[in-house]
Write a structure and sequence with these properties.
13% helix; elongated; Lipocalin
């Protein structure tokens, strides 16, 4: 457990908080370190090299290992002359486990089996739920920049932004439509900074003008938090069904299924997200303005994904409610193409398992150039619970 002594003892960054902090106290003497690599912390918890790292340590020594797991505090301790190990997880010790043994080494072996899910598997699953509920930079769930958060955003985009759509009242042309672009986002919370880069690839086929539309999206994302990278990939398939297609009112609903996966060995965590959603896209012509109201209801089930040597028992269940209102207006022509500007507000709320950031709002401005194969630029500010904030820039071209 003293492998932390092998980690570089570095000062905390003035710009961003380190993902993991460890401190070992033996008989009143404390040794600390920081790291942005979960594998180092995992090896620290898996092994018991205190005796070789701290010359004065014995099995009778008072010992405490404290770890900040990217926002979730945890400790493992044993009193002087004690053989049991006490595990406490959470700011107020919401999860407590005692590992007993005739010797401290025997208790440590019980702890190691607990870590790997070989002893009381529900215990580690409970810890993972606590992690998602407290860590604002979990790569799998709990915040807008996670696998779950990005999937929830993609649900509404699938329903309200089909490939080649200008966001207005233009009828959908029959045949193939495609889109590609890049999304850049930056999130900040509790001195953690995350940057993400997404390539949103989209393809659809419309069966006759304003007919049903089969849509396929394949977003690819790389995110970086405190120097540690996370990769995400997914596939979303939906069927856009027109309900009303008049010059003044356009309404469609889009049922969809999706599978997305991602994770990071260095941040510590990986998962596969399975689920579906039902989206609605209502557009009203108000004179020369277009009022757009978007809604999506989605369900996601996340299962564990092993990322190299890190495999943690993520079992997350979540409902997502995402609603948006946008108002756009034509402002002229650029390069003989129509240009429209718009304002939007989007509200996202999660239900089910507890999340570190259970809700957030986005306030955006958009510009759309062209009507039949538009180029769209969007900038939005995100404001979430627990002081979570972010900025997202999107650029897409249709063909």
């Amino acid at each position: 457990m003293a492998a932390a002594l092998a980690l570089p003892v570095l000062p905390a960054s003035a710009e961003a908080r380190d993902l993991f902090r460890t401190a070992i106290t033996v008989n009143g003497f404390t040794f600390g370190s920081v790291s942005n690599d979960a594998t180092e912390v995992w090896r620290l918890l898996e092994r018991n090299p205190i005796a070789s790292s701290i010359p004065f340590y014995t099995d009778q020594s008072a010992m405490m290992l404290r770890v900040d797991l990217r926002g979730l505090p945890a400790s493992l301790s044993s009193p002087r002359n004690g053989t049991d190990l006490l595990l406490r997880v959470g700011r107020n010790g919401e999860i407590t486990r005692v590992f007993t043994g005739a010797t401290r080494q025997e208790a440590t072996e019980h702890f190691h089996r607990f870590l790997h899910g070989d002893e009381e598997p529900s215990g580690m699953r409970h810890i993972m739920k606590e992690w998602v509920a407290n860590s604002p930079v979990d790569p799998v769930a709990g915040n807008p920049g996670s696998l779950l958060g990005r999937t929830v955003a993609a649900d509404l985009d699938l329903a309200t932004r089909p490939p080649g759509d200008d966001g207005g009242m233009t009828p959908r042309a029959a045949g193939w439509h495609g889109s590609a672009g890049i999304d850049v986002d930056a999130f900040s919370v509790q001195d953690f900074d995350t940057r993400g880069y997404t390539i949103p690839l989209g393809l659809s086929y419309v069966f006759g003008e304003d007919g049903p539309e089969a849509i396929l999206r394949m977003p690819l994302t790389m995110a970086e938090t405190s120097g540690a990278n996370t990769l995400y990939a997914g596939m979303l398939a939906g069927l856009r069904l027109p309900v009303v297609t008049t010059p003044d009112v356009r309404w469609s609903v889009t049922p969809a299924l999706r599978v997305t996966a991602g994770g990071s060995e260095r941040i510590g965590g990986g998962g596969v997200a399975l689920g579906g959603s039902l989206g609605s896209d209502l557009r009203l012509a108000l004179g020369t303005f277009t009022l757009s109201i978007g809604n999506s209801l989605g369900y996601t089930q996340i299962e564990p994904l092993k990322v190299k040597e890190i495999e943690l028992p993520y079992h997350v269940r979540s409902w997502a409610f995402r609603n948006s209102v946008a108002l756009s207006h034509p402002v002229g022509r650029v390069m003989d193409l129509p240009l429209a500007l718009g304002l939007s507000v989007t509200d996202t709320r999660l239900a089910g398992d507890a999340m570190a950031v259970p809700s957030w709002q986005e306030y955006g401005v958009t510009a759309s150039l062209g009507r039949h194969a538009p180029i769209r630029l969007g900038v939005s500010y995100l404001d979430g619970e627990n002081d979570y904030s972010g900025l997202r820039v999107t650029l897409s071209a249709s063909f």
